[in-house]
Every structure is written in C-alpha cells, then in structure tokens.
Design a protein that fits this description.
heterodimer; A: about 500 residues; two-stranded antiparallel sheet; about 65% helix; B: about 475 residues; mainly alpha; three-stranded antiparallel β-sheet; 14 helices; 3 strands
Chain lengths: ~500, ~475
C-alpha cells in the first residue's frame, strides 16, 4: 500500500513545473558558482605558493640567524568551495620567532590579496543550498496536505483502508526523493568540476567529508520540507499556507541570522579585561628588560651597550615592541654583520655569551607571557564569537552552516588547528636553536665566518585534521538537525491524525 | 482606474500577507534604529579621539620645528562617520577608517625618512572570528525583504483573478486593459507602501528623538531621496510580479518563477558577478610589496653612495645630496603606495561595475551614495586626504621660504628652518562630504534603475494586452 502511495505522489511531483524549475535553477547556480569558486581557489593557491617560495628565498638570503625571519604560510582548504567559513578571513602568514608565541591574532595576509575585495560577499555551495533548497522544499510542501484537502482528494484517499501515518510517510518520502534529485545532481557536477581541476587533488578523506556535507544537506532540506508540511497540515487553504511559508522562510533565512547578531553584538568585549592582561604582560617584559640590563651591567665586558660596541659592516637594531589590541609584546634584536673588524675579535666571546643568555631569556619570557595572553585572547575574541554562533544555531540555517563548516574543516576550530600546528613548529624551532646552541654561535650575529645553514632548519608542514575529528565536530549540529526533524514529524503526525477531512 | 486600485487595496488590507508584512517591516526597522542609536555614538567617539590625537601630533611637531613637521607629516587622518549609516552600512567595517599621514620608515645616525601617505588595510577582519552576516540596514530591508514582499503582493494579481474567473468579469465592463493594469499596479503599490512608510516613519521617529544622532536639513533631504529610490525599486519588483502573473496561467507557477528569479537576481547575482569580475583582475603585481619597497630603497642608497663620497668635505654639498636622497626616497615610496592603491581600487571598481547588472546592487550603490557610506565615499575620503597632503606640503615649503636662515633644502634637519611654527597656522584636515559629487556618481545608477522599471512595466503591459481570458 505504502509503495502505491509513494508511486502516486512521486508521479504527481515529477510531472510538475516546479520540479523542472528546481532542477534547472539549482544546477545553474551550483555549476556557475563552482566554476568561479574553483578559479578563486586556484588563485589563492597560487598566492600561497608564491608566498612560500618568497619566504624560503628570503630566508636563504639571510646572512645571520638573528636576522632570519621564518614565515609560515597557511594553504587554502580545497573544501572551502563547499563552505568558505573561516578559510579566507584570518591571516594566512605568520612569523615564527622565539620572541613570542604566535596566535591567530598575529597573522598577516599574503601580499597578493586585495583587502578591499572583502566588501563583496563571498559565495559558496552551501550558501546556495541554504537559500535555494529551503525555498524549494517549502514550494514543494505548501500544498501537500492543504491542496488535497481543497481539492477533496484527501477524503477520496482516506476512504481506502490506508493509515493516515502511511499517507504522511508516502508524501514525505516521495517529495524528499524529488528534492534529492537537484541536490545530488548539482553536487555531482560540482565534484566532477573539482576533480577536473589540476590544482585540486581530493583524496579519500575529502570524499568522506563531502559525504558528510551531503548528509547534513539532506537533513537541512528535510527540516524545511517538514516545516512546510506542518504549515500545510495546520492551514485549510493553500494560499494561506503559501503566504505563511514564504514569510517564515524570509524570517528564518533572511531576517533571523542578521537581526539576532545586530542585537547580540551589543555585548562588547570588556575593555578592562584587555587592559589588565596587557598590564600583566607589560610587567613581565619590564622585568625582562631589567634582567637584561643587569646582565650587561654585571658581565665581564664594560659598558651597557647591547651590541657590545661591535663595529662591523652591516646593520643592527633592538627594541621592545607591543600591540595592546592583540596583547602582543615582544623584544626583537637583530644583528646582521657581514664583516667584523680586527678590534672586534676579543669582544666576540662576550657577545656570544650575551646573546646566549638573551636568547634564552627572551624565549622564557615569551612562554611565560603566553600563559597570560592565551586565556585573555580566549575571553576577548573567542568567547563573544562562540556566543554569537550559538545564537545563530537557533535557526536551522545556522545549524546547517555550522555542521558543513565542521565537515569542510573551515570552522573556527579548523582555523585554529593551523595556529596550533604553528605553535608546535615553534617548539621544534626552539629545540633546534637550543640543541645547536644557535643563540651562542657566531652565526647568530655575524656572517664573517660563514652564513647559517638554513637547509638543516626544521621545516613546517601542516596537515588538515583527521576525518574522524571533523565528524566529531559536526556531530552535535547534525544530531540537532535530526532531532528537529523528528520533533516536526511527530507534530505533523499528531495534527494530521486529529484533523477532520 | 481608481476604482480598481481601491478594490485591490481593500483586498490586500484584509489579507494575511499585509499583516505579516507590517510585523516584519516594523520589526526590522525598529531593530535598525535601536542598533544605530547604540553604535553611532561609539563611532563618533572613535572619530573624535582620532581627530584629537591628530591635532596633538600636529601641535607637538609644530612646537618643535618646521623640520619636524616636514619629516613627521600630519599624522593619521580619520574618515568622518556618516550620520545616515543606518540607511546603508556600505561594508564600512571592511574599509579602513583612516589614512596614515606620516610613517617613520627608516632612520640612520644623520638622516630620517620623510613622511609619505600610506593606506592601511583593515586589520579588524584578520582577528575576527565572529560569524559573518549582513547588517540590518535600510538597503538590506528594502533590497532583500521589501522586494520579496513586493513579489508576494503581485504574484497572483492577474493569474489569481483568471483562476477565479473574476478577470473576465472586470474586462466585461468598458475599461481598457491598460487601465486595469495600472489600477492593479497602483493598488499593490499603495498597499505595500502603507506598512513600508509606517515602518520608516517609526524608524526615523526613534532615531530623531534620540539626542545622540543629529540629523540636519541636508540629511533629511538625503533621506527623502533615499525614500524615493526605495519607491522606484519596489515599483520595479511590482512590475516584475505583474509581468509574470500576466504571462502564466496558474498562480502557483507564477510564484515559483518569481521566487527563482528573485533568488537569482537578488541573492546570487551580486556575489557571483563580483567573484567573476574580481577574478579577471590580476592582483599579482602587488605581491611582495614590502620586499619591493626595501629593494627600491636599497638601490637608491647604493646610487647615492658615490655622490656622498664626492661631497665629502663640502658640508653644504653634503646637505644638498642628503636632501635629494631623502626627497627622492619619499617620492619613490609614495609612488609605490599610490600604485598599489590604484591597482586595488581598479579591481574593486571593475567588480562594482559588473555587479550593477543586479537591481539590488544598484539600489545598494544608490543608498551608499546618498547615505555617505561605502566605497565611493571612501574614494572621496582618499581624494580629500590627497588634497590635504598637497596643501600641507605647500605650507611647509612656503614657511621654509619665509625663513631667511634656512638653506631651503627640504628633508634634512640642517637644511631647513629650525624655528617652531604656530600650530594655528598649519592647515588642518577636515573630512567633508560633497552632495553634488554624490549625485553625479548616483546618476547612472538612477538611470539604470528607471530603465529596468520601464522595461518591466511595458513588458507587463504587452503581456496583459495579449492575454486571453
């Protein structure tokens, strides 16, 4: 019986204009946007490759260790085509040095990016689905029950010995099958385009992640179909059901996400928190500066000049440097001598001694301030962002967005994974500097007896997290979507059972 | 005709969509007003802090010496926030709020770099982890929500009557078809404008009663222009609704078509077109900007090395070479910054020109022009900054010429006037908005919008004339 019902509904839906229109518009939007998005990704990848090359070249050309600026670049995520999330926003190059612990807030942009282009909204495939699929689901659902009611065919169907639950199920399944056609077809085209691009290589894990995105899309689609069905079951007339569905769509998709944040944004980060944390950090660095000066005053070499009056050919500079907004504080000293004079030779053991002491002191101070800086950054930047995204999740569109971001790895945690890897890399670098006694070497400040061997320096590599971790991050949002589905279905069932035909 | 319009109006006033439209529009407009009242004083605070800092910087330099003024430059120049920002946010959060007038790039024992104008990127977006959303301004409420409501008001105005058979009844009277169409159009326009005008009035009421935001006569003039643009824009969508409704037999099909057209035109076209246009441009040239900057600087230093050697012993000549070196360096670097800015702007301009194919973008551009926000406004600000920079440089030159003790070699301490300057005499930067300039940039957009409307309305007329009842 159920199969007969499903077949009837399926034929009803497939032969309609709206089905053809749904397939056409979804395909059109997804295919054009995928082409554009792939080009955009290729451009970002080229920018990344250029930046990596440039940074490597600059490092190779550096003559002393202290002048060496180790930059690490963030590769673009190919799955950002599905949901761009935080892939474009945080900076994509960050300097690794012993002088501070790098975080998301210390990163900068590649030189090839045009910051003005941010004024345009960036598209992705999930955004298209968010808007179009939800609209189509409602267009398919508004007359599912109210239409039959109006035409009187519902009475006809119920004269047969069918259970009302079966009618509902048949309608749901057949409409979902119809709606899956544009969804799956457009995704198929998108994946074909992706695999044809030379710049993008998807591995098995990426296909699993795309599978996760598809599952979340189906759950999202189903939520909106059920919302439409609920309206259709509660309303007697199709025109009322249609109007109500459109306004609810407008509210959930257009209005709610934007209005909530406009209201929530009023909770600004407390200024006092920033000030007090910065104050603490400042004090630690002031203590550092005292220790540094004390060392210079008490060591065997007379005078308090940090450069120990070396008179070589080259440049030198040293300063304390801060940015109160991101709580950054660091000491930078660079000595870049290509030649040293005869009279400098007796000073060199002193200089080595001094720089060995200084390097270790700077590293320790930086690590110490990170203990204060890390929780403060969490409070100032991450917490408000988390509150805002939690509010957005009150609408299914927010849940869907969060779930697909988690699968694509472009969510907040995904963005921060990179910076965790950078901090890991910094520890490696520092271990290398300690092991080789680089701080105390002659190459730290002078190139007169040979330049540093940069090829031995630790290399940075970044792997996106495992698929299972993506799945774990997406799980809460996907299960909430599924729960909404279940609740909606039960409500529709109860209304439909009680309704008079 | 008025009879039909009245009938249409009464029909609509009792409908569910009218009630929902009122609730939605008023809710949005009130949110907009409340958020603006909360945000605007903060923006004003940031601006006035910036201006104070700029003035202090200027005074400190002027009190020291003319050389200090010539070397340090005027300091950071701030963009004045618009009081009408609630009409169009204009992606102001993605645009920098200041230009850097004076940047110490290098210093040696003898020489310091001379100031140049630099354009900072927006650094707030880098550390921003907050979810990305469109802000609720008038251009969003009108561009997105009102256009959707306009379609919902008209999708069944002809096809629905045909379905019910009442169209035949109307046409049986001796009324020409175009009168029927215009009547329907006017009826829909008036019934849509009741909630819209009500919402706008409430919004303005909330904003104008607050003491934090002052709207002067010019602002009210701008607001009324914005209101008429909004009317024109809704007319466009009403005409589109009538066109499809006249062409299609069933209202359900009409709605599906209209929704899909709306989604493509309003939601997707701006973003997709911007991405396509942005992609066509090559921002590659700006890559390695800082590296290029240092390279130029080093090359220049190497060039001047021999000239310094020649000038050894001759102190006057040495100062001349120093001055030439510092000015040449500043000129080179300023040129580099200008070039980069020009490239970035031309990329954005190309993208903006192409996105004009979508009516919602046209309306956004128009709103931005008249609200004094957005990219065009930013370009105006940059223009103001450049004019001021020229004025400032001329002031330094003239003051130096007036000092008989000075050697008139700009850029070097020993070659310039060492006397302090009265801070009042130094030209001050004041960011201003130019109404006629705004109007000029908006003219083409206005024309385009009218053109869209005329085409759609005549399309609706042709479709309705040929329709079989």
């Amino acid at each position: 019986m159920l199969t007969t019902l499903i077949r009837r509904e399926l034929l009803d839906n497939l032969m309609t204009f709206r089905f053809a229109a749904a397939v056409f518009i979804t395909l059109l939007l997804v295919v054009t946007n995928t082409v554009v998005l792939i080009k955009d990704y290729e451009r970002r990848l080229a920018g990344y490759n250029d930046a990596v090359k440039m940074h490597q070249r600059q490092l190779q050309e550096t003559k002393t260790y202290s002048a060496g600026e180790v930059y690490v670049d963030r590769p673009p995520n190919p799955l950002s085509i599905f949901n761009v999330g935080f892939d474009k926003r945080p900076g994509n190059e960050v300097k690794v040095s012993h002088g501070y612990v790098p975080s998301l807030w210390d990163a900068d942009r590649h030189g090839s990016d045009n910051p003005f282009m941010n004024i345009f909204t960036s598209m992705d495939i999930v955004f298209i689905f968010e808007v179009v699929l939800s609209l189509l689901a409602l267009v398919f659902a508004y007359d599912a029950l109210a239409g039959e009611h109006e035409r009187g065919t519902l009475r006809l169907v119920l004269t047969n010995p069918v259970r009302r639950g079966h009618i509902l199920l048949a309608k749901y399944i057949s409409a979902m099958l119809c709606l899956l056609v544009p969804l799956l077809m457009s995704l198929l085209f998108a994946v074909i385009l992706l695999t044809n691009s030379a710049a993008i290589s998807l591995n098995m894990h990426d296909f699993l992640r795309i599978g996760g995105i598809i599952f979340a899309s189906v759950a999202y689609l189903s939520v909106f179909y059920l919302i439409g069905m609920l309206i259709s079951a509660a309303m007697r007339r199709t025109s009322t059901a249609l109007m109500l569905s459109m306004f609810i769509w407008g509210f959930l998709v257009l209005v709610y996400p934007n209005v909530t944040l406009a209201v929530i944004r009023r909770l600004e980060a407390p200024q006092a928190r920033t000030a007090s944390a910065f104050n603490q950090i400042e004090q630690i660095w002031e203590a550092f500066d005292r220790a540094r000066k004390h060392f210079l005053a008490t060591d065997a070499f007379p005078g308090e000049d940090w450069g120990l009056e070396l008179r070589g050919g080259g440049s030198r500079h040293a300063y304390l440097w801060d940015d109160p907004r991101t709580l950054l504080y660091t000491y930078e000293s660079v000595m870049n001598f290509e030649t040293l004079g005869e009279e400098d030779e007796p000073k060199i053991p002193h200089a080595q001694n001094h720089f060995r002491f200084l390097g270790r002191l700077v590293t320790d101070t930086a690590n110490q301030t990170w203990l204060i800086r890390k929780p403060a950054l969490e409070d100032i930047f991450v917490k408000p962002a988390k509150v805002e995204s939690a509010w957005l999740k009150l609408s299914p569109i927010g849940l869907y967005d969060a779930a697909t971001q988690a699968w694509a790895g472009t969510d907040m945690l995904g963005a921060r994974d990179f910076f965790n890897a950078v901090r890991q890399y910094r520890r490696q670098v520092i271990n290398y500097l300690y092991d080789k006694d680089v701080f105390g070497s002659r190459e730290w400040f002078s190139a007169d007896k040979g330049a540093p061997d940069w090829s031995r320096f630790p290399q940075f590599s970044f792997q996106r997290v495992d698929t299972s971790i993506n799945a774990k991050r997406a799980l809460p949002d996907v299960s909430l979507l599924l729960m909404i589905n279940g609740v909606l279905f039960i409500i529709i069932f109860l209304i439909f059972i009680k309704s008079e035909v | 005709m008025w009879h039909i319009a009245k009938r249409e109006l009464y029909d609509n006033l009792n409908s569910l969509r009218f009630a929902l439209a009122i609730v939605l529009l008023i809710g949005l407009m009130l949110t907009n007003a409340v958020v603006h009242l909360h945000e605007h004083p903060k923006r004003i605070q940031v601006y006035s802090d910036g201006v104070t800092e700029y003035q202090n910087h200027l005074t400190a330099s002027a009190d020291e010496s003319l050389y200090r003024l010539a070397q340090k430059g005027p300091g950071d120049l701030y963009k004045k926030p618009s009081a009408l920002r609630f009409c169009a946010e204009g992606s102001e959060t993605d645009l920098p709020g200041q230009a850097i007038g004076g940047l110490l790039r290098w210093s040696t024992d003898r020489l310091e770099s001379s100031w140049i104008l630099a354009y900072p990127p927006v650094d707030t977006s880098l550390g921003n982890l907050r979810p990305d959303v469109t802000l609720v301004d008038w251009s969003f409420i009108i561009g997105y929500v009102l256009s959707l409501i306009a379609l919902l008001f008209t999708f069944d105005s002809i096809s629905g009557e045909r379905e019910r058979g009442t169209l035949r009844l109307i046409l049986a009277n001796a009324i020409p078809r175009h009168t029927v169409l215009i009547g329907k159009f006017l009826g829909a326009l008036i019934s849509l404008n009741i909630p819209f005008t009500l919402a706008i009035l409430m919004n303005l009421l909330v904003i104008s009663t607050s003491s934090d935001v002052h709207l002067n006569a010019e602002a009210w003039g701008r607001l009324s222009i914005i209101f008429f643009i909004a009317l024109l824009y809704t007319c466009l969508f009403l005409a589109l609704g009538l066109l499809v409704s006249a062409r299609v037999q069933r209202s359900a099909v009409s709605l599906v078509i209209l929704l899909l057209v709306w989604v493509s035109l309003v939601v997707f076209m701006p973003g997709t077109l911007a991405a396509i246009a942005g992609d066509a441009a090559s921002p590659k040239a700006t890559h390695g900007f800082y590296e290029r900057s240092w390279q130029l600087h080093n090359e220049l230093r190497d060039q001047y090395r021999s000239r310094w050697r020649q000038a050894r012993g001759d102190s006057r000549k040495k100062i001349e070479v120093d001055g030439a070196y510092v000015s040449k360096d500043a000129e080179q670097q300023a040129h580099l910054h200008e070039e980069r800015l020009k490239q970035q702007i031309s990329q954005v301009n190309r993208a903006r020109a192409i996105t004009r194919m979508s009516p919602v973008t046209i309306v956004q551009h128009l709103f931005e022009s008249f609200a004094g926000t957005g990219f065009e406004r930013h370009l105006q600000f940059l223009e103001n900054v450049k004019v001021y920079a020229r004025e400032y440089r001329e002031f330094v030159l003239d003051t130096d010429k007036a000092d008989p003790e000075s050697l008139h070699i700009i850029g070097v301490r020993a070659g310039m006037s060492q006397k302090p300057v009265s801070p009042e005499a130094v030209p001050k930067f004041e960011d201003t908005l130019n109404f006629s300039k705004d109007f000029n940039t908006a003219a083409i957009d206005l024309l385009l919008l009218t053109l869209f409307f005329v085409v759609l309305l005549s399309g609706a007329y042709l479709a309705f004339v040929r329709v079989e009842v």
